[in-house]
Amino acid sequence: MALTADRQALIWKTLNETRGKIEPSEYKNYIFGIMFYKFLSEKAQLWLDEMLRGEKWADIWAQDPEKAKNFMQSRLGYVIEPGDMFSDWKEAINTDKFNIMMAKDALTRFDNGVSPEAKSDYAGIFSDIDLGSSRLGANAQTRAATMMDWINLMDEIELDTDADVLGDLYEYLIGMFAANSGAKAGEFYTPHQVSDIMARILTAGRENQETYTLYDPTMGSGSLLITTASYMKNAGVQGAIKYYGQELITTTYNLARMNLMMHGVEYNDINLRNSDTLAGDWPDGTVDGVDSPRMFDAVMANPPYSQKWDSENREDDPRFKFGVAPKGKADYAFLLHGLYHLNNNGRMAIVLPHGILFRGAAEGRIRQALLENRNISAVIGLPANIFTNTSIPTIIMVLEKNRATDDVLFIDASKGFEKQKNSNKLRQEDIEKIVDTYLKREDVEKYAHVATMDEIRENDFNLNIPRYVDTFEEEEPIDLVKVNQDIVSVEADIKKEEAELLELVNQLAVNDDSKAVIDSLKNLLSGGSHE
């Protein structure tokens, strides 16, 4: 079952009607937080209904709260106490007993009840729901009214416990919030069409692996991880796929944790960190001075483009053995970090600006080292204006650790898109063409070229796509006879119009004041302008 477009549009319309004065970039934190709390409540209730077989959760809790707490923690990793379920909030609203402290205390108790093993997955996940904010209302009563609107809204949406439906809704809303959040959207959103291309490239020929590890060092809301996993045959099988990711912005990190779990990923398959990827490596990288980094089957990333970073004293960092990216542009730092953590047989895909293909100095040296080490497999040029936070054209670079060949596939997909109001969108046929071309790895006239290392050396290791894919379209030859005929026709029309105008001027009444002007105009129309 999938979420229909009409249902999506209705949900978005209803959400906007309850937003009030809260900006979309902040409003999403409340909506996703309440949606996630409802999801966890219903998950807990379903499990309790199965385990208790008719007994009430409140009665079990009353008998031995500590034992009941451990009972739920052992399976779910969290605890929702009796009276704190989403359904309890709804019932309190219906009986006119709800107040803002009821929700605030429930979220606090949830945070305190997370099991030690699940701390990294659940702790602080509702920290962005500030129920004391004046944006919700001037006092506790008006804030409670706002909260009740949102609870009723979530109840009306009737979230399906089916992970596919719930995941569809979450992804749809993430995209809508991104479209309405301006530049801030880049912090958490990669368009699904781009995620889909990367996912299919990363998993091609590997879909049947029994186990699979994914890593996104700049994960945003986690969409790249989820989309990549969806192409594996064991997606949804507990323990088969492990998700690893890092995100610097805490709010976005919380979105990613919610996103994965609302897509049906169990908490013990999730390993996400709220940290700075470049400042500190994955925590089990160096132990007692010995480098033993964690490696992954697939690495994917859509990092912030050309941002500044602390490049000082990085020469001994094993991640940057090919060179240190300049302090004003961290693009290659993110790329090298990801490549470092790639399994020997793994595959990596990263979105970056075109500048990494041709900029010189330190970046030129890194690029040459990667090429000579056979790490760069493909460069795919995307259309401009397909991201919500930037209009610049970007590329997907595909890398591998141990390639048998040193050629590079270039794809110029910059002209395949659908023009929309404020952006461009990759169509399904555009996606299929990119993926099929990548898989076939053959030349396609004016679209793709497999360049040898000799060609790349001749271009001084410059990977600018137009050097390898000629998309020039010759203009049709100009028909000079027709052009001359058109000129003659236009001049004839002009003379005809001038004659008609002259006739009208001759009919004008003339007085002393207008005589000089009219005589001048007659002279012009009767031949002064043409020979």
TrEMBL record:
- InterPro entries registered for this protein in UniProt: D12N6_MeTrfase_N, DNA_Adenine_Mtase, DNA_methylase_A-5, Restrct_endonuc_T1M, SAM-dependent_MTases_sf, T1MK-like_N_sf
Q: What class of enzyme is it?
A: transferase
Under Enzyme Commission nomenclature, its number is 2.1.1.72
For this chain's UniProt record, which GO biological process terms are given? Answer: methylation
Q: Which reaction does it catalyse?
A: a 2'-deoxyadenosine in DNA + S-adenosyl-L-methionine = an N(6)-methyl-2'-deoxyadenosine in DNA + S-adenosyl-L-homocysteine + H(+)
What are the DNA methylase adenine-specific domain coordinates in residue numbering? Answer: 162-476
Q: What does the UniProt keyword field contain?
A: Coiled coil, Methyltransferase, Restriction system, S-adenosyl-L-methionine, Transferase
Q: Which residues form a coiled coil?
A: 480-507
Quote the Pfam families the UniProt record gives. HsdM_N, N6_Mtase
Annotated Gene Ontology MF terms? site-specific DNA-methyltransferase (adenine-specific) activity
Q: Which NCBIfam families match?
A: hsdM (TIGR00497)
Q: What is this protein called?
A: site-specific DNA-methyltransferase (adenine-specific)
